[in-house]
Structure formats: C-alpha cells, structure tokens
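S.,

Sequence below, as promised.
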Amino acid sequence: MDCLFVHVPKFKNYYRPIGEYTFINYMPMGVLALADLLSREGYETGVVHLGVEWLEDKGFSLIDYIARKKPRIVALSLHWHPQTYEVLEQARRVKEAFPEVFLLLGGLTASFYHREIMERFLWVDAVIRGDGEIPLLRLTETISKGGSLDQVPNLTWRQGGAIQENPLAYCASQDMIDGLCFTNFSLLKNHRTYIDWVLMPFFVKGFSKERNRLFFSLKTRMFDLMVGRGCPVNCTWCGGGKDAQRLIAGRRQVIFRDMERVLDSIREALRWGYETMHVCFDPYPHRPDYYLKLFSRIREERLKVEFFFESFGLPTRTFIDGFAQTFGPRSLLALSPESGSEEVRRRNKGYSYTNRELCDCLEYTREKGVKVDLFFGLGLPYEREEDLNETARLIARSRRQFPNVQGFRTFTIEMEPGAPWQRQPEKFGVETTLQTFSDFYSYHKEEGEGFSAFGYYIPDYFPDLGEDAGEEFQRRLQEIKCRRFCFIHPDARKSSTPFWGRMLCRASALMAKVVRRRRGRRGSDSLLF
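The prediction came back faster than expected:
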C-alpha cells in the first residue's frame, strides 16, 4: 500500500449522565476525497477508522494491520483538538514499530501548530498545512519514486535534524474541489459499520450499537455534504473563520462546488444508504441563490432526501420557502442565536440579528411547517452572569410561541485553536491555559469531563471568583447549565425543559452506573443490551 489514512477518535471521555464514551467519531469529509484522489492517480490507498474497528473487534491492532498492508505512508487526521493526545500516541506507536514508515499529519489543528508538533514530537516526519490535495499527491510521488521533499507545497518536514517549512503555495480552487469524490466508501475498511452506526459525534461505550441509535442519535444516517470552503466572517470562538482560513490554508475567498457535483454526491450518498444530508456551510445567508437553485434541482430530480441545514445567520423567507417545498417533515433548520442578549450576540457572531428578527423568522418557519433547532452557548466573550437571564427568557418565549422548534440546546463553549479569542485572549477579556499545542495535548491526555471542559475563564463573569478562578468559573457555569438549561430528552430529536432534563439526567446517570457494574462482572469490553 502506498498510503494508509487513519482516523483516531478520542476514546477517553466521561460525562455523568452517560458514563464513558468515544468522541470525534465523524471523519473529516476530506479524508475519503484525498484517498480517492491518490487511488485515481494509480496509488494503492485505504482508510481505517479506529472507532469503527473498536465496534467490530475490541482486539483490533493498528500495528498488526500495518504489518499486513505495509504502507509507505501513514497519514493521520488531526483536525479537531480533542484528538491531539490520542493521535500523537497512535503515531508514536506506529513509528516505534515501523521506523521506515513515513508518518504524516494533516487537518486544521495539525496545520495551526505544525512547527511545534515537528519540534516536540520527533516521531512525526511531516505535517501538511491547509488544503492537502496537491501536497499529498506530490508527497506520495516523491516517497514512491524518490526525490526531494522541498518541492512539496504546504509541507513542514524534517531534513536530518533541521525542520524545513516549504511555502504555503497551494490552496484548493473550485476546479480542484469539483474534481474530488467525497463518497468513495469502498476505500474505508468496514465502511458499512461507519455508514450504519456512526450516527452521532459520540458513542456511549456501555451501550450496544442499537441502544446508541435509539437513545443518542437522530435516528437517520446523516452524510456530511461538501458544498464549499471558506468563510467571510469571524465569530469570536470559531477556529474556522475568515482569519483562521487565511492563516492556516492561505484561503482568501469563499468557493462553492459546482452544483451538479453536489447533486452527484447526494445521489451517491443515497446509494450508500444515507438518508439525510448535513450542511454546515452557509457563508452568505442573506444571499441564498445557490441553495435555492440546488433545492430546485433536487425537486426536479425527485430525490428522496432530507436536509439538516445549519444557518450561519437568519435564513431569508425565500430560503425557507424553498426548504419547505423541497424537504419532508424530518428535515431541520438549525439556528444559533448563542445568547438571548442582543449585545452579546452582536459582539460575537459574524452574522448577528435582533431578537425581534429571530422571532419573525421563527414565526415564518412555523407558518411554512419547517422544524427548527435553536442552539445557545454559555461562557461567550463579553457575556456576564446576568446575561443568562435574557437567554433563559428567549428560550422560554420561543418554547411557548413556536411549537415547530423541537430542540433548545445550550452548550458551554470550548477554546479552539486558531479562533480569534484563542489567538488574542486579552483582546476579548479571556484568560486561557490553551495557547500552545502542548497545552492541548496535556489537556486531552486525561479522561476528564467531556462537554464541560472549557480551557479558559472570564475573570469578571462572576463577581467573586476567588483564587482558583478557572476551576470555580467552570464549576459555576456548569452548575448553571444543569440547573437552568439542561435539555436532555429520551428522543434525541427533541429537548426537555430544564426540570425534566435534570430528572432524566439523574435517571441516565443511575442507569449508566448500573451498566458499568454489570460490565465489571461480565468483562470490561462487553457491550450490554
């Protein structure tokens, strides 16, 4: 094999209501596209997902698999920061067992910290920064046929004892992404398991696949649909905004895939068994022409597909009209006001709006029969404890007035590499312990409390934080989330009020405790139910 791609979830996680779980189970959508590109160029490639292998065989060994496949290159995706520790640990084990293998990292987090990774983790041979199509192709050619790596764009690599940084000279064009295939699941080992059972970013270890689907998923096979790249705005907490894209990938403009190629992806995903397309790409919410044409083509083709669409701002009425005409009752619009305070929202979101505008939008979606999820955040820059009252009031009002809003989901915000407030915490009034790659690596080394670990605190969020300000900030904000904003519901498509959410949380915690005890009697690797 010329190149083996490896996706490593974060295996060590714990959250009180559900117990132990795996996280970051979705692969970055570019992994299959890169593997397919190499395959079409004549190189033997494959993709292995360690979470999927864990589901199929608790005794699976990546080392044994590599020994059989003998790849020249092992490429690990380090896209999301929770993966940092476990990706580097897998990389170390591979390099110790196979010193001759070229060990490569890529993805947003690896790109942002490429230099530090190369300086500290000597078993990593190279990092591809930003977009990886041409750099990976050139790298594979060089490793296979010989030559110098100094001609590979976007590559940070080790020559002897010195670290070389090749120019960030490649950024994918529309022509390039139009030529990519994001649906070649035949390259993924045990792809049927990935399609059928990786239905959420997390998987509860003590429950079977069937129970995970029943309790923790949207009960639909959801495909991450590639529509384009780039973002024209900067949200304070986001590591994928305009400035981060320019810094990490050299991207200075938004690009959309050709609409017919997007339709090809939808058709192919449906053939593989997917039912819902997940779109998290809405760079111009006030100019929906692209999506209106796409929806029209879906209707012309009579494609039986649902959409889960995350809007970066408020969708226009014409967008809502097109959405309602095209998709069935299981489709969903996701809106993210983040805060009930208009001032907090204005200072944080790239596309802001007033509460009146939000309610007008929700009223129109109700009239058109479109279901909506509302997402809120706790611990935003410029937010203070009293602002949470406005968030609670907006949620209560929306719950009363708009029965088509089926989910009210409130999460604490995490610190992301490359986000504006991570790069300039003092500008946003934030204190953070997560500045370097080593910080993230150490932070995720321990199991910790998932969904409640922040990596920062806001000194004047509460009036009397005291000496252990960071821990106290996290404890108080998590307590407020549980008491005032808990949304746990036995149907993952819906959300409970805080009271019933807390009741279910307690019941879930008790159930998880019973499961862990039974697992202890039956063996630590057994799955129940």
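DSSP finds 21 helices and 20 strands in the chain.

Coffee later?
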